[in-house]
Design a protein that fits this description.
The structure is a homodimer.
Chain A: H1 13-25, H2 32-42, H3 50-81, H4 132-144
Helix pairs in contact in A: 2-3, 2-4
Chain A binds a DNA duplex through helix 3.
Chain lengths: 212, 212
DNA sequence: GCAAATTAATGATTTATTCAAG
DNA sequence: CTTGAATAAATCATTAATTTGC
């Protein structure tokens, strides 16, 4: 019996395919409600949570970029090697192995691209016998119209589309796995122990308690 | 009237003082429920959200570390300058301006330190006439005992103490500010436009759709 | 004294890096 | 070795301090 519930999400092929298609279509950094929607759609194909979707886009974006970068620096290095050894300095300071800021294809918006997407959208050869239409029209609705947020940002007004998050979990419906019987680890692994702080209550705050 | 509601959180002096004291006491990376608690405690002194607490610890930790790092590198440079110019090479590769991985005082736990804290804890000279005891015993309860999570992690089992988050906002009670009438900016500033993707549905996933 | 202009702090996001499961 | 998860670093952006000319 599956007594070790496997700690991390394992995407099903369908989920993966849809995510990749969304990425190809331009989705890079979906915001909270978009993630919510994507999650519920993908949950049709298997267990999934919002954070999985979030992390997936983060990682995929980063690693695509990384792939590109490696490819470019490799090219550069080959060019460098094919040059006379004189011109080999001129770096030496700054980017020694990673090319810190290259103009790479990034997301250009917090929102989905509005441009017309490939209309065939995953309908090429029907890789799965799953009711692909199910996830499909939902996704399409995501991209074209049905956003009803943008005025429903409840608490603050700042949309805070991403970045941090927790507090209340979102979907206690999908997963129902019990926590692994960890032994209440107070000092997980890197117990540097001695606290050794260096902070100082430097200055009292600036803006006094105005209701703003 | 305050028609421009100010987009970002401005901590009150009390909030700031409490946060700094918690930091000094060893709190570095509180997890979701801890942030929840801290937030509700601090909300006594003014409007605040969970993400504010999260960001505060992130930033404070990072900037303390940065301060230390700068101090150290400055020392190093001075030492370097007071040396004969022979020994000036020996870096040149790796950390050229930031000392990428120094053994700095970091958080040593996801949880609060259990060690005995200064028992006076903010009770030195009563900087504020606020009922300081209010936030105080609450904080103390945070540090010593009253965690009832660790078994209440609802959805997945992974505590996922931090990192990302959104979906459902947590405290719609504190803030009640309307969203600033932003003009629905679809392409914020850096409209790189062309999408230029480079992705490839590289490989189908590994684990098939097991319910796990 | 006081605003406009500049600079410094710091709240909020994004990106890079690291860890660890499989 | 791939990749989900998490953390740290870098960056952006806004607000407060501070300076400067009047």
């Amino acid at each position: 019996m599956p007594q070790v519930p496997s700690t991390r999400w394992c995407p099903t092929p369908e989920q993966l395919m849809i995510l990749e298609e969304m990425y190809r279509t331009g989705v890079r950094t979906p915001n909270a409600s978009q993630i919510q929607q994507i999650t519920s759609h993908l949950s049709y194909y298997g267990k999934i949570e919002g954070k999985n979707v979030f992390y997936w886009f983060q990682n995929h974006k980063a690693r695509e970029r990384q792939k590109l970068r490696r490819r470019l620096t490799k090219q550069q290095q080959q060019q460098q090697q094919s040059m006379p050894p004189f011109s080999q300095h001129s770096f030496h300071f700054h980017n020694l192995e990673d090319g810190h800021s290259l103009p790479l294809p990034d997301d250009s918006s917090q929102l989905f691209y509005g441009h017309q997407m490939h209309p065939q959208f995953l309908q090429h050869e029907g890789g799965f016998q799953e009711p692909a239409s199910h996830g499909l029209d939902l996704l399409r609705r995501l991209e074209t119209g049905g956003n009803q947020e943008e005025a429903t940002s409840s608490s603050n007004g700042s949309t805070w589309p991403c970045g941090c998050e927790w507090m209340t979990l979102m979907d206690p419906s999908f997963g129902e796995r019990r926590p692994p019987p960890k032994t209440l680890e107070l000092f997980p692994t890197t117990s540097t122990g001695g606290l050794k702080d260096e902070c100082s209550i430097s200055k009292s705050s600036s803006c006094s308690a105005s209701t703003n």
